[in-house]
Structures are given as structure tokens and as C-alpha cells.
Amino acid sequence: MSAEADAQLIERVKRGDTRAFEMLVVKYQRRVERLIARMVRDVDLVPDIAQETFIRAYRALPQFRGDSAFYTWLYRIAVNTAKKALVELKRDPLVSEAARPAGDDGDETSRVENELTDGETPDAVLASKQVAATVNAAIEALSDDLRQAITLREIEGLSYEEIAEAMNCPIGTVRSRIFRAREAIAERLRPLLGTRDGERW
Fold first, then answer.
1. C-alpha distances out from residue 14 to 27, 41, 76, 88, Å
2. Among the four residues 8, 126, 156, 186, which has the most C-beta atoms within 10 Å?
3. Average of pLDDT values for 87-110?
4. 3-state SS track over 132-154
5. In angstroms, what CA-CA distances link 146 with 9, 65, 138?
């Protein structure tokens, strides 16, 4: 079900829906940051590397063929981005074999890496940092109920049934809270992403 939801969001991004990509950021940011934190010793580097990972993923998404799961593809980009950052800092990458996903053919990411290495601009990096900061601020600004619901759904990956049980409320209430949380995040992101007022994804 999660793979199907990702596929739907990816198709929306390919049709020009930047807000759908932000839902992917919300869903995977913590996992990407945890992955990067396992690779680098300097925790101060983790947010910047994660942000660059999402910049690269956004640019490369039109070429994503779906041969692997989205997170596996994103994982490869994160690993390559972390390695690049560490090389630039003249540090040795620390990638454990246990952290590598099975069946990693690397084809898509190596092509993505070649396409993206020279295309970074300060404006793009700044924009990504602003988006990530806005998403985080939007989540922090939510009421406790909305923040808990969106975190359990998009970051921890729980089902609606599991969230209903965890929050001791009906599934309909969970769906409403998640919808309202997503709307609040999208509203905060609209000025950064250039989405027109009233435009739906």
C-alpha cells in the first residue's frame, strides 16, 4: 500500500505537482536523515546532506522508471550525496554493508549522479533549505493531535487503523486530522512552491 501511495505521488510530481513531492519529503525526511547519520560522524552535516538529497531526487524524478521502490532509489541518491559531501570534506565515507538494500543494481542512481553532479546552484540549495525549514515549521505549528497523526502516518508509516488505535479515536477522525495537517503544510509551502491560491493537487 505504501508503494502504491508513493507511485501515485510520483505520478503527480511528474505532472508538475510540487506539493505532492513535499508529501514525499514529509514521509521520508526522517528516514533519510537517520541513514545519513549512520554514514557521517558530524551530526551538523546531516540536515544539509538530506536537503541536497531531496534537491537531487526532485530533479531526477522525471527519469524515475519505478524499477525499484522509491525509497530504495532515494536511498541510493542519499548515499551518493553523503559520499560526495564527505569526499569534498576529505573524509572517508562510512557505509556499512548491513545498511545496503538487497538487490541494489545502482543503474538508475549512477545515471542520476552523473546528470546532477554539475547542476547545483546556490539558489537551488537555498530554496531546498527554505522548503525543508518550512515543512518542519509547519509540522511544529500544528496542534498536538494533527502533528501526532501526520507524524504517525507520513513519517512512521502506520496504517489508519494503527493510528486510530494509537490515538484512541475513530478512523474517520484520523483521516480528518491527516487531511487537515496536509492542508496546513501545503498552505505554508504555497509561497515557496509558486502554487496559486485555490489550486489543488
1. 18, 35, 20, 32
2. 186
3. 52
4. HHHHHHHHHHCCHHHHHHHHHHH
5. 21, 34, 11
